[in-house]
Every structure is written in structure tokens, then in C-alpha cells.
Amino acid sequence: MRLTDCHNVNDFRALAKRRLPGPVFHYIDGGADDERTLARNTRTYEECDLVPSVLAGVEEVDLTTTVMGRTIDMPLFLSPTALQRLFHWQGERAVGRAAEKFGTYFGISSLATVGIAEIGATISSPKMFQLYVHKDKGLNRAMVEQCKAAEFDALTLTVDTIVGGNRERCLRTGFTSPPRITPRSFLSYAAKPAWGLNYMFREKFELPNLSGHIGEGSSVALSIGDYFTTMLDQSLDWTMAERIRADWGGEFCLKGIMSVEDAKRAADIGATAIMVSNHGGRQLDGSRAPFDQLAEIVDAVGDRLEVICDGGIRRGSHVLKALSVGAKACSGGRLYLYALAAAGQAGVERALGNLRAEIERDMKLMGVTNVGALSRDNLRWR
User: Which of 92, 233, 249, 297 has a CA between 20 and 30 Å from the CA of residue 5?
Assistant: First the structure.
């Protein structure tokens, strides 16, 4: 299977599985507990149908939208995700350059493998930083100040990782950051020598945003679940979130909002956007899917802040369904992480090109010439 054979997200997933050691692939691919929410995140889009119009004169369509103060060229962007140089040696550099080429937002995580300053200096397209609030308050301050200095466009506070989810695939494979090769996992890593050579002989793996403060994740191996549970501040509350927003002073997004009441509180503390998200089904299994919750949240706060639908996106039609409900844009992680693992920057560019082409083609088939023309009149629920 080659990159040219990848026509959709599932194709990239298959190629990523061929190229990654088992523990690393299953870290990307897996969810919490029985993975019911993980599956639901995508399946829920199939419970809603599009109703097209015809003879609408769709020779030219406009995919642009404005999100967190920046106009982007397509209504889909790349959610911040951790540990990207474990998936491909180019990591966040590849993802950022691909996002830049397509004129859309991308985010880096507190647990990124490329530093804030470098991304700020080298990527000109819109950028968000995803903040995990650590127990180490000096670390939290340092990351926010670095983002200010690097002129990031938005700060995104993740609010659904107060403890780590029960990621049983990672428990079975023994996945940690950095990877800890055990007798049980040795064959999984040995079977992928190209990955191993890149990991061993390219730039040393580390989490540079944390360096100088903590060693966990860079030099001290931990599972991501254990990292969240032991390193993050479980006293995080609305007062602290509001204080972070005030300190940041710019576009401020809360990622992990799933209820109407929390969406209202987000607006009350001055958030400019929320990402309706369940962390890709990796935290609370049995929770609702973002698309399930989207309509009631848009109805409650859509006139007060921007609502972004994050998670489960696999097709351009999924994006159009979320926009029709009232989302300002959509975002996702696995949709580009599989592609990154499959082929680095070229993979991410092909994945974005596929999805952009689907969005444009489906808009024409829907008979709409700009994303603002989509509405719930286009939809029917089964």
C-alpha cells in the first residue's frame, strides 16, 4: 500500500498501522474502556442525512470561515495532539507546514515534541496552543508567556483531563512516553526497523515545552493516563480558567465542553470559543459524541461565542453536517495523525487535500456556494 492509494482517513489508518510499532499505533487508535464513545463519535454522523438542492449555480464556492480572530481557507482545522515525533520523525513541523499550505489553523500541545518558540518562528498560518494545567504553576506561567512571545493566535485550555482515561490498549501494549521497550513489546518495535532507526538516530525525543520544569514524558517514562493523573492539577476550576483567560488576554478557547451549562459558563468567563469535544473518546467512555450535543449547545451560546465541533470527523460530509447544525468550524486529531504516521508532511497534505476536495464537492452537490449558507434546513435526522 502506497500514499497514492490513500483516498480517505481509513486508508491512512491502514498505512499507519503498517508503519508504526503496535504500541504507538494503538496509542493513536485507541480510546477508553470499551471504546463505545470512540466508535460513537463517527457513527453519530450517519444518523443524520443531508438534503441537497439543485440548479443553484455552484461554479464558484467559498470555503472560508473566521475562527478565533483568523480567517481560514477551509472550515476544518487540525486539533492539538501530543507526542507527534513518535508517529513520524517530522512531527509538528510536518503538520504545521501542511496546515500552512492549506491556510488553516493547527494546534500544538503542552506535550508537543517541537517547542513553542520554533513553531511561532517558522509557521505563519493561524496557531493555537493547547494548555494542560500542571501542578507546577511555574511551568503553566512559562508556557503562557512563551506563547505570547511567539505570537500564537489563540490559547486553548483542555478541561476534560482532570484524570487520565482508562486506555486499556495502552495498558496491554505498555505504551509510555518516552517508549519503554519491554520483553513483551520488543517484537512490536523490532518489526518496524525504519521507525526504530528514525527514533534512535534523528533528533533526541523530548517534550521541550516541559523541559527545565519536569522530566516526566521526556526522560522519565509514563503512560499518558498516568501523566494526566499524577502531573495535572486536579483543582482546576472555573475561577482558575477565568484567571488564565485574563492573563492570556487574547482569543481563548475551552476544549472539552460537552454540556449546555458548561458552555454557558464558558461564555460567562469570557471565552471566545469552545471545542465541543470528548477528547476523541479517550477519557469518559459512555459519554455523548460531540455531534450529539452540538445543536443544543449552539442554540444556547452560539450568539455569544464560536462553537467548534471536534472529533469523529472522517468525511467532508461530516463537516457539512456540523456546519449545518451551527458549528463555526470542525477539527480533529486522528484524521491527520494517521496520515502523519503514514508519510509525514506529504501524508498530512494528502489527507487535507482529500478532505478539502470532499467539502468543496459536497457543497456543490448540496447546492450551496458558501459555508454560511448551510443550515438545519439541509438536514433530516433518522
Answer: 92
Q: Is 7 exposed, middle or buried (0-12, 13-18, 19+ CB in 10 A)?
A: exposed
What pLDDT is attached to residue 296?
A: 98
Give the whole-angstrom CA distance, residue 320 versus residue 358.
10
55 phi-psi bin (left φ>0, alpha ψ -120 to 50, beta other): left
For residue 186, pLDDT over 90 is answered with: no
Residues carrying an active site annotation: 279
CB 234 within 8 A of CB 162: yes
In the chain, which residue ranges form alpha helices assigned H by DSSP? Answer: 9-19, 22-29, 36-43, 91-102, 116-122, 137-149, 168-173, 186-190, 193-201, 224-231, 238-248, 260-268, 290-301, 316-325, 334-366
Looking at residue 345, its pLDDT comes to 98
Is residue 3 within 8 Å of residue 329, measured between CB atoms? no
DSSP 50: E
CA 340 to mean position of chain CA atoms? 13
**What's the CA angle centered on 124, arms 77 and 140, to 5 degrees?**
75
Q: What are phi and psi of 309, to 5 degrees?
A: -95, 115
- Asked whether residue 49 is domain-assigned, the answer is no
Has residue 376 been placed in a domain?
Answer: no
Whether residue 138 lies inside any domain: the answer is yes
* Cis bond before residue 21 (omega within 30° of 0): no
Number of domains comprising the chain: 1
Q: Residues with Cβ < 8 Å from 186, sequence gap 6 or more?
A: none
CATH number of 259's domain:
3.20.20.70
CB 322 within 8 A of CB 344: no
Residue 201: HSE in the Cβ half-sphere, 13 Å Cα cutoff: 6
Scored b (16 or more CB within 10 A) or e, 29-56 reads bbbbbebebbebbbebbeebeeeeeeee
> Closest Cα to residue 99, out of 131, 58, 67?
67
Question: Could you read off the pLDDT of 258-295 as tens digits, one per residue?
Answer: 999 999 999 999 999 999 999 999 999 999 999 999 99
Q: Which helix (H) or strand (E) holds 254?
A: strand 251-257
Predicted structure pTM score:
0.96
Strands 70-72 and 251-257, sheet pairing = unpaired
**Cell for 239?**
475561577
Let me know if residue 284 belongs to a domain: yes
Range of the domain at 91: 3-43+69-359
